[in-house]
């Protein structure tokens, strides 16, 4: 029982309501108050990290998902009026955090604070409302990362849509924002509503087969599934179709869940909402979208897909999702090369980088999956920083067009230029910076499962360097065109922007130089999760051995 | 002989709220016959007088309904029975009754006000009777008590050509559907030799006969008209469009609840042959209804027509819930909750439309929603809440409503239900498309510069009740009924 967990989710919500009430018409103090709320959330998250680091490390004995710190509010529990096994479905409201969850919570808190700091200078229309909406969005995402039951997970997953819809439409581009927001919402719903059918299916199938009370708790279901899995192996497949341990059942539900998470993470055939949404939102909104919202889908696979439907995941991992990931790496990079708009270029580069994460996660190796988890954080940090820099740049230039002669912006915005180059290098995976670690782990994880896909993906790194460096060259370097530059308004990065971006740069550097401290948080949980995907020679040899023993015993008997 | 009288008195005790409502409806009619229409300057006082009388009746019946909680549950006595279904029907009636009284308060023409409240009271009592029916005759009585006042209401609501057309359409199709119901009921009587529903379930439900299936199909066809299930839906968009907003609100809710409760009563939740046949009929109706309703709603440009199709689509979801409840032999709480959530979200939309009309805006096309957010920000917020709930997003009652139907469909561990759940999910996405269109229009800037008149207070209350309940039921989805 740790009240820190609900406090992390409630702080931004209460803060958002408070600043809406107190500073509604105060565009100066409202955003600053929001920054204070975000800072408080970050402090709470760091306190949580401290607690997690002291908690015992999961061994995987109690199932593949084990929260290290958890909170359950049984007095808030609800019995849903759905009867299965003679009992109503009990919903106890369970929050919990493990390594990957903690990583995402920290990422969300950092990115929220940075975004609010930069946005407090850039948003001039209803600034307080904007800050409140960002806080609400981050509360929803924190809720997803901290949920330990399917229902709460789903509620938070959907809940983020409402403030996002407002953020995209009210502060986005005048003409394109509403159609883009509608496309985003419809696309997401087209995935998430079938997904909830899949969730329901998992709950009832496991109740039927495991003989446990109907539960929506992810650790409990994961544990039951893992046990059934072992029993299934021992029973040589003599289990009826209705059970969750049956492959056909799992594939059924995986199809539904795949839609939900695949669309949310913009997996290749479902990616078309991403460029329109990114390009039509305010660039600071896009920072949140690209850094954290996109990760909800991947995190969903990590939290729900892999532990609850291991057989189906094993079936689909390499041939379907791995291939789509590798294709996304190359496709995203190639399309990014052809872009003439800063935001679209960054959008497609996101698409390409998410491909690496997909590859790593679905290599189903400890190496690849922990690399992918780390890469979620890395990509979140660098993309958020790049979009925030782009937001500043677009504000100064009043345009995000790239189709120009080299601008030489470095001559008038030196600080911006330095940071832009830094984060671009981080994004392309230069050794010594954070993305290098994650991408190398992800690719080497895939290399052990499917070398072909790993090789395809590796070409994406080269392409990535190409478009990123060309971008830097176009915008920042070259002979300054003084006539054009004279039209730019606004100064170089100020205290707020620097205090927002420099810490991110420091984290990037720290992960790049010494990734161990970050891996120490993530790896034990990923290891516990991946035990069920390792070919289990121990079980088979045991069976063979016991059979041999038995036959020998029978011979002896005769 | 004395035993028959005893049965009747015992039965009558079970339907005290319904009979009180019925008597007050008659009283409204009686007084309406002798009261002169008001002079123009007295109209507000006149409305207040009738409105408060109706609220008084509502309060009385509510008190009667809630004071009965000490009565033993599930007692049947001849004509009527008192169990979870009748309790749910009563609560749903009272909920819809309050909101429709408030919507009608200022938007029905003053001359027709006593008749409006009289008809409404009789409809509400009919609805309660359907819930308490334990016999085919009382069930039919309840259903007719819902539909006959509707004809009266439709004809007094709008005197023009479109109004007459929609009245005639509704009248002829409704009586046609009653004939179907009676035909099926007569077959059931022939098979069972009794009109008592318990006996019918025992005898007809024990074995599968062709005549039993025919009877069931005919009865369900008749009832499908009431809940506007496809292919019995054709009248609904025309009638919605050809009448006034308060009437459309009543039509969107009360007959639907009556139909749903009647289906539950006739089929009888339980695993017998009757219900397993009904299950498939209901599933086919459900899939047709939601798909056709949503597809046609997508292409509408008139506001009331769109709402008519949206209400058709919601009937489809509800039918899935009934079929799943029958299949799993489970209590139908998801269905009741869906109806309650549907009541507040849909009637909320109607209340906002009626309110905007009362403030002098034309609310005919979807485009007329534009600019609402500048004119009436609070109403636009309420409408946005109701639309979010209709989509089924969290923080609204609609979220739990859809989720519970999904859960009960999946819980019935029949592969067919899984597919239906997937079809329903696809439908929910299509529906989100047109609700989002309304939401988008709502926040578009408007063109006209007419200064806004203040809203009628009763409509403000109706809108507020709907919006608040929509939010509240997200946090408290249980303990509703």
In short:
In chain A, 73% of the residues lie in helices and 4% in strands.
Topology:
The complex is a heterodimer of chains A (558) and B (481).
Chain A: H1 4-22, H2 29-54, E1 69-72, E2 78-84, E3 87-91, E4 94-97, H3 99-122, H4 127-146, H5 150-159, H6 161-171, H7 177-210, H8 218-234, H9 247-264, H10 273-280, H11 283-308, H12 310-337, H13 342-362, H14 366-397, H15 414-428, H16 434-449, H17 451-476, H18 482-485, H19 495-513, H20 516-530, H21 537-557
Antiparallel strand pairs in A: 1-4, 2-3
Chain B: H1 2-14, H2 16-34, H3 43-67, E1 75-77, E2 80-82, H4 84-107, H5 113-132, H6 136-157, H7 161-192, H8 197-206, H9 210-226, H10 235-241, H11 245-267, H12 273-298, H13 303-328, H14 333-358, H15 372-375, H16 377-391, H17 397-411, H18 415-442, H19 457-475
Antiparallel strand pairs in B: 1-2
Helix pairs in contact in B: 2-3, 2-5, 3-4, 3-5, 4-5, 4-11, 4-14, 4-19, 5-6, 5-11, 6-7, 6-11, 7-8, 7-9, 7-10, 9-11, 9-12, 10-13, 11-13, 11-14, 12-13, 12-18, 13-14, 13-17, 13-18, 14-16, 14-17, 14-19, 16-18, 16-19, 17-19
Structure description:
The complex is a heterodimer of chains A (558) and B (481). Helix content of chain A is 73%, strand content 4%. Chain A has 558 residues and is mainly α. In chain A, strands 1-4 form a two-stranded antiparallel sheet. In chain A, strands 2-3 form a two-stranded antiparallel sheet. In chain A, a hairpin with a 2-residue loop joins strand 2 and strand 3 (87-91). In chain A, helix 2 runs parallel beside helix 4 (127-146) and helix 4 packs parallel to helix 11. Residues 238-242 and 537-548 of chain A have low confidence and may be disordered. Chain B is mostly helical and 481 residues long. In chain B, strands 1-2 form a two-stranded antiparallel sheet. Chain B is globular and about 70 Å long. Chain B starts with a helix and ends in a 6-residue tail after the last helix.
